[in-house]
Amino acid sequence: MSVVAVVGAQWGDEGKGRIIDLLAAKARLVVRYQGGSNAGHTVINPFGTFRLHLVPAGIFNPDVVCIVGNGVVVDPTVLLAEIDELAAHGVGVANLFLSDRAHVVMPYHAILDRLEEEARGDQRIGTTGRGIGPAYVDKVLRVGIRMVDLLDPATLRAKLKTVVALKNQLLTRIYGAPPVDGDAIFEEYRAYGARLARHVADTGAMLQRGVARGENVILEGGQGTLLDLDHGTYPYVTASSPTAGGSCAGAGIGPTRLDRALGVFKAYVTRVGAGPFPTELTGTAGEALRERGSEYGATTGRPRRCGWFDAVLARYSAQLNGFDAVAITKLDVLDEEPAIRICTGYRLDGRVVDTVPASLAEFSRCEPIYEEMPGWRRPTGHVRAIADLPVEAQRYVARLGELIGCPVELVSVGCSREQIIVLGEVFG
User: Residue 255, SS3?
Assistant: First the structure.
C-alpha cells in the first residue's frame, strides 16, 4: 500500500493529468485536494480527449473511487458540465464523490474576481476570472457556502441572506456594480444541490477507511508548486497550497499517512499569466516551443509563456515538497531543438545565487546561467523504453534528475497513456 501525492513542480500545466491517468490503473482512490476550476488536466486515452477541471483524472478507471476533497472549491456549473461530457463519452461517474466540507464557488465570486483584477490595473495577477480566489477568501472569512449547505434549503437560504447582503454592499458601494439577486442564486444552487446530492459524502472518512485497508491512493494536485500561496512567486500565485504539504489537509488525511511524493516536471518550463520568468524565451524561439507543445491553457485557452528548464526552481520545488521521485513530461517537444539549455544558477546584481529570492524585485532581476547540451534532432514519440531514446535524450533526462536531486521514474514522449516510459514503480 502507498499513499502518493502527485504534485506539479513548476507553474502548473506540467502534464499531471496524463501521469495520474496512467497511475490510476494501480490505485483504488484518487483524491483531488485543492484548487478549483482554474486548474485543468488534459487527458488523452481510449475514451477520447478530455480537459478536466474538477473531476479527478482517475475517473476513467471504473474501479477507482474518485474524490473531490475538502480543500477544493467547487463550481457546480463546471462540475455538472464535466459529468455530462464524461457520460456522453461512456465514462461512468457513479464512483465520483464530493466532500461535504468542500466550499462552493458562487456567482458573486466570479464577478468580484473580475472586478478586483480590473482594479489592480498594471499590477494584474492574471487570474482566470472564475472566482477561485474570492471563494477561498470567503472560506477564510467564515462566510463560505459548503457542499453540505446545498443539501439543506433552509440552511442555504439563511446563509445566503447574510452573505449576499455583504457582497452587494461591496459590489455597489466599492465597485459601482449591480447587486446580485439572492433569491435567484438560492433557487439555482438548491437545484445544483439536488442534482449532486448522490455524490456528496464524508469523503475524509472514505479515504481513511481506504488507507486502513491498505489500498493504493493518489492525492492529485492542481496548479503547481511555484503557484503555492505561501511558497510560490507571490503575489503571482494561486489561492491554495498545491504542494505535498497541502495534500493531506486538502484531502482529509493525516500527514503520517503520506508515503511518497512524486513531482511532475515538464522537460522545459511554462507559465500562464504575469510574474517573473528567468528562462523565458521570447520571439520566434518561444513561439516555436509553444506551437510544438500546444502550450495553450486548458482552462482559459491563453497562450503559455515558454522557456528553458530552470534547475534552480526545480531544486527549490523538490526540497520544499520532499519529492521521492519525479516524472518528466513532454520530452518529445524538444525533439527538433539543435541545442538545449538548462538554467543551473542565477546572476543577481553581479553575484551568483542558486536559490529563489523571496523578493519579487530581486527575482525579476535574476539572469539565468546556462548549461548547454546537444539536442537529438530525432522523433521520440514511438519510444517505449528509456534505452531506446537517442543517447542525447537519455543524457538530458539523466542530467535533469541529477540537478533536481531525485530519480526519474516516468518520462512522457507524447500525450497518450502508451507514450509514457516507466522506469520505476511509483507505488513501491
Answer: helix
**DSSP for 147-185, written as a single string:** HHHHT-HHHHHHHHHHHHHHHHHIIIIIS-PPPP-HHHH
**Angular region, 102: left φ>0, alpha ψ -120 to 50, beta rest:** beta
Q: Is 13 a catalytic residue?
A: yes
Say whether domain 265-422 belongs to CATH 3.40.50.1370: no
What are the CA-CA distances from residue 372 to residues 32, 53, 309, 343, 399 (Å)? 37, 36, 11, 9, 11
Residue 202 has pLDDT above 70, yes or no: yes
Active-site choice (21, 41, 53, 324): 41
Q: What is the pLDDT of residues 251-283, one digit of tens each?
A: 999 999 999 999 999 999 999 888 999 999 998
- CA 23 vs. chain centroid, Å, equals 16
Sequence ranges of the domains in the chain: 3-100+200-262, 103-196, 265-422
Site of grid cell 511555484:
226
CATH 3.30.160.620 fits 103-196, yes or no: no
Residues in CB range of 194: below 8 A, 6 or more apart = none
Annotation says 41 is catalytic: yes
Q: pTM of whole model > 0.85?
A: yes
Please report which confidence band the pLDDT of residue 48 belongs to, taking 50, 70 and 90 as the band edges.
confident
Say which range, 242-251, 270-279, 379-388, has the weakest mean pLDDT: 270-279
Backbone angles phi, psi at 332, to 5 degrees: -60, -25
* Fold for the domain defined by 3-100+200-262: Adenylosuccinate Synthetase; Chain A, domain 1 (3.40.440)
Unique residue bearing C-alpha cell 534532432: 377
The closest alpha carbon to 255, from 269, 263, 245, belongs to 245
Of 13, 75, 138, 332, which is the active-site residue? 13
Closest CA to 271 of 236, 322, 247: 236
